[in-house]
Write a structure and sequence with these properties.
The structure is a single chain. By secondary structure, the protein is α+β, with helices and mostly antiparallel strands. α6 crosses α12 and α11 packs antiparallel against α12. This is Histidine--tRNA ligase.
């Protein structure tokens, strides 16, 4: 793509000022992944990929840029108004960098709805961007695990999606006492507001958004916001009491309107039996800010005193696919940011000690043995061994030290004697022992077996 006029001017200015020093600092809220960082991310993602496949989920992906109206229609008001990165392309189309994956997922499923085998079990780990204040557990650029299931029985889907959410944390080392899954149902609060408190329908969406951020407000601030929505003090008090009720109390309170609460109790009872009552909790204050949620909603909370916060969450969205002109197709899912799970592992002591995965280093003695060293490296790689070849000449001892630093188990080389006798020599770094192997298939196989045993 050709540079714009502004881009050409900037390029010209830089070329004219040879002393210009570019900053090494990246854009605020983004990250550089140095090899150690990437190694940890790969470790976590490999655990997640294995877990998702064990549940039968298939990986998918989508574009990082979508038409703005997709998010305007299907993302939360906070994301669209305050956090969206939007711009116009050269065709004067208004686009946005994806802040979340669910609208793209719904668009993709709707586009091939009749062709897809049901139930649809999909997951993805896309990169997203939101313009918000960077803080612990929250950045502007982040990866987000998205797990969704469509086209099955809602009870079974809801149970499965939360079981997979629990297992995501367990697969990186978590125990049941480390976290809680707080569960609610949008129908419960809707029934209470409409049928018990008689809140006008036009105020319910605004009140739900207020309840979603209630934990960030003081009691007085919450009361003031309730007054703005025309709630009396008695109604505010009743709402507070409701938010501190058990599922059994709410079923009794809602009476003829208790169907959503009864549905949720069935899910909670099943999940407790399948996991632990330490983990599964009913929490009527859980709302989730996205407008597309229609049924069960949940959030997973870290219980560690140094990280007591919501890690991730999700819920049921029964009307999302039909919005694209397709047939009704109910779904449920969740999104989990990579920053949150890394912080969770860190505070609980679950971060592994990861090293560069080098099996063997080949060493050289002079300019004349370059080709023989490279041939030996090729043979070792053909065995499936991670093999580093030398790209600089240094003393034998220095090459041994470098091999130890990268975590190699052995060094291998061919000196004059090994070339004459058609062998190669191996020095085992842990013991210092040296061994000679035939430069034939039998010798390489023996070396491979011993290395894998160490």
């Amino acid at each position: 793509m050709p540079l714009s006029k502004a881009g050409l001017n900037m390029s010209s200015n830089l070329s004219q000022n040879k002393k210009t020093v570019l900053s090494t600092q990246g854009y605020r809220g983004t990250r550089d992944f140095f090899p150690n960082d990437q190694r940890l991310q790969n470790y976590v993602y490999s655990k997640i990929h294995k877990l998702m496949h064990s549940f039968g989920y298939e990986e998918y992906n989508g574009p990082i840029v979508e038409h703005l109206e997709l998010y305007a229609a299907k993302s939360s008001e906070e994301i669209v108004r305050e956090q969206l990165y939007s711009f116009k392309d050269k065709g004067d189309r208004t686009l946005a960098i994806r802040p979340e994956m669910t609208p793209t997922l719904a668009r993709m499923v709707a586009s091939k709805q009749k062709e897809l085998l049901k139930p649809i079990r999909w997951y993805s780990i896309p990169t997203c961007m939101r313009f918000e204040r960077p803080q612990r557990g929250r950045l502007r650029e982040f990866d987000q695990l998205n797990v969704d299931i469509f086209g099955g029985n809602s009870l079974d889907e809801d149970i499965e999606i939360i079981l997979s959410a629990v297992d995501v944390l367990k697969c990186v080392g978590a125990k049941y006492e480390d976290f809680e899954v707080k569960i609610n149902h949008r129908g419960i609060i809707n029934s209470f507001l409409s049928n018990i408190m008689n809140v006008p329908e036009g105020n319910i969406s605004s009140l739900l958004r207020l309840l979603d951020k209630k934990d960030k407000l003081s009691s007085d601030e919450f009361s003031v916001e309730c007054k703005k929505l025309n709630l009396t003090q008695d109604q505010t008090n009743n709402l507070d009491q409701f938010l501190n009720s058990s599922i059994e109390e709410i079923i009794s309170l809602l009476g003829d309107y208790a169907a959503p609460a009864k549905e949720l109790k069935n899910r909670i009872d099943s999940l407790i039996e399948l996991t632990s009552e330490k983990v599964i909790k009913f929490s009527p204050e859980i709302m989730r800010g996205f407008d597309y949620y229609t049924g069960m909603v949940f959030e997973v909370f870290d219980k560690h005193p140094d990280n007591q916060r919501a890690l991730f969450g999700g819920g049921r969205y029964d009307n999302l696919i039909a919005a694209f002109g397709g047939d009704d197709l109910a779904g449920v899912g969740y999104g989990m940011g990579d920053v949150a799970i890394i912080n969770f592992m860190e505070v609980h002591g679950y971060l592994p000690e990861l090293k560069k995965e080098t099996d063997v280093c080949v060493i050289r003695f002079s300019e004349s043995d370059r080709i023989s060293a490279l041939k030996l490296s090729k043979e070792l790689r053909a065995l499936g061994l991670n093999t580093e070849s030398p790209v600089t000449l240094s003393k034998f001892g220095k090459q041994i030290q470098n091999a130890e630093k990268v975590g190699a188990k052995a060094v291998a080389f061919r000196g004059n004697d090994e070339m004459v006798n058609n062998t190669f020599c191996v020095k085992w770094l842990l013991t210092g022992e040296q061994e000679i192997y035939n430069y034939e298939k039998e010798g390489f196989d023996l070396f491979y077996k011993k290395l894998k045993m160490n």
